[in-house]
Amino acid sequence: MPSSGNNETILWNALFEASWDGMVVLRLDGSLYRVNHRYAEMLGYTREELEALHIWDLDTRFSQPEIEAMLHSVDSGGAHFETRQRRKDGSVIDVELSNNGATYQGDKLIFCIVRDITARKTTEERLRQNEALLQGIASQVPGVLYQYRMAPDGSRSFPYLSEGLVKLGGLSIDTMAGAEVVPLMSRILPEDADLVEAQTRRSAATMENVHVEFRFRHGDGSIRWIECRSTPKQEPDGGILWTGILLDITQRKRAEERVQAMAITDGLTGITNRQEFSRLLDREMERASRYASPLSLIMYDLDHFKRINDRFGHNTGDDVLKTVADLVGDSLRDADLHGRWGGEEFMVLLPHTGLEAASRVAEKLRQTIANHRFETLGFVTASFGVVELAGGENSRSLAQRVDEALYRAKELGRNRVEARASHQDAQ
Q: What is the 8-class DSSP label of residue 372?
């Protein structure tokens, strides 16, 4: 407040009354020395009514002793804080105070600018409640809610990761969020990382949603399948922000693998079933024809298997089939294919193998079976037919020829190998 000069007094009064904020001058004893129209309007009093009060009559946050101590501590350096004041009608508003101490005509006064921040505090509280609500929802979502940003310079970051990351990835949010994406992205298996990056770049170019599945190394070292779904949004600076969800689909993937395995595997022996073996046979025949490489097929059948079932029961017969399948499987190369054709009949497909070499393999298998002693029933034998794929031959003809070779081995006394070199029956 000016100390002299009529013109300065007029200017001060004009500024005091024209202010958009409430203005009040306090004495050290807490009484209101002067208030402007805005402050009176803010609290619903007349100026005369306010100037008859003390500041602790209005303040609902601090006690009278606290306010008295604050008044005596204010100096020319000022003080800034928030409090709450009661209006004449009893309602309470949030206010922000900026105080400065000064001496006027020998008295120390406190000059205060008072701003009503009730609307701002209400908005802040609503935002806090919304944030708490979103945090609560995010904590219940069975996955990770996230935001992933690609800046105009190509740098990447995760502005937001929900707490689900702790469970889904076994990782700490503090170490995964922020500017660096390397700790999180580096856990995607290398064989899947290129697919994820390609999907991201495609989405950035087309603004299409991302939907990709990939394998991720969990914090405990295990491998998990993750499904990612997100929606991109162009930002004002040219960056792109994806908002999405990560779901752990490991159990679903394992179930799908089990279903797929059941569809192609013989339930008793655990080796390829007839349908899948037929599909693989067609594939290998096409490959052999394309590269002009030899391909041979072995078919074997357990001798007098019906007698085993009749004498010892079907459980024993099943055990024999499983054991024989294991014995043969252990004697084959990784490239060879082994399947159950039906009943006690089995097939072995030998890529890159001619008739002579295939016959030696069949003889080795025959001896392996014949030399194995089974509990309860002792020894069993098997008969083998062997054929080599001929030019222009189809799978039906090849299967028919190997069946005839096996039949010939049985006719000649069983427990032997018969090979057929010609394909006069091919179609």
A: P
Report the alpha-carbon distance of residue 202 to residue 365 in Å, rounded: 53
pLDDT tens digit sequence for 180-238: 455 677 889 999 999 999 999 999 999 999 999 999 888 888 899 989 899 999 999 99
User: How many other CB atoms are there within 10 angstroms of residue 348's CB atom?
Assistant: 25
Structure tokens given for 396: 């039906």
Q: Do domains 6-121 and 141-253 have the same CATH topology?
A: yes
**Which residues does residue 34 pair with via DSSP β-bridges, in sequence order?**
25
Q: Please check whether residue 56 is in contact with residue 62, taking contact to mean a CB–CB distance below 8 angstroms.
A: yes
Query: Superfamily for 6-121?
Result: PAS domain (3.30.450.20)
Backbone angles phi, psi at 383, to 5 degrees: -110, 145
Q: Considering only CA atoms, which of 268, 279, 269, 219 is closest in space to residue 248?
A: 219
The correct CATH number of 265-420 out of 3.30.2000.10, 1.20.1250.20, 3.40.50.740, 3.30.70.270 is 3.30.70.270
Contact 350, 336 (CB under 8 A): yes
User: Which residue of the set 96, 197, 257, 344 is catalytic?
Assistant: 344
- 284 part of the active site: no
pLDDT, tens digit (0-9, with 9 covering 90-100), for 336-381:
999 999 999 999 999 999 999 999 999 999 999 999 999 888 999 9
> Cα separation of 399 and 298, whole Å?
9
- Domain ranges for the chain, please list them: 6-121, 141-253, 265-420
CATH 3.30.450.20 fits 141-253, yes or no: yes
Burial of 147 (0-12, 13-18, 19+ CB in 10 A): middle
Contact 383, 300 (CB under 8 A): yes
Residue with the larger pLDDT of the pair 317 and 219: 317
Q: How far is CA 73 from CA 28, 69, 329, in A?
A: 10, 6, 91
Residues found in the chain: 427
Give me the amino acid identity at 330.
Answer: D
CA distance 299 to 310: 24
Distance CA 369, CA 378 (A): 11
Side-chain half-sphere exposure of 12, counting CA atoms within 13 A? 11
Across 305-315, average pLDDT: 93
Residue spans of alpha helices (H) in 57-215: 64-73, 118-140, 164-169, 173-176, 182-185, 190-206
As to burial, measured by CB atoms within 10 angstroms (0-12 exposed, 13-18 middle, 19+ buried), residue 255 is exposed
8-state DSSP, 147: E
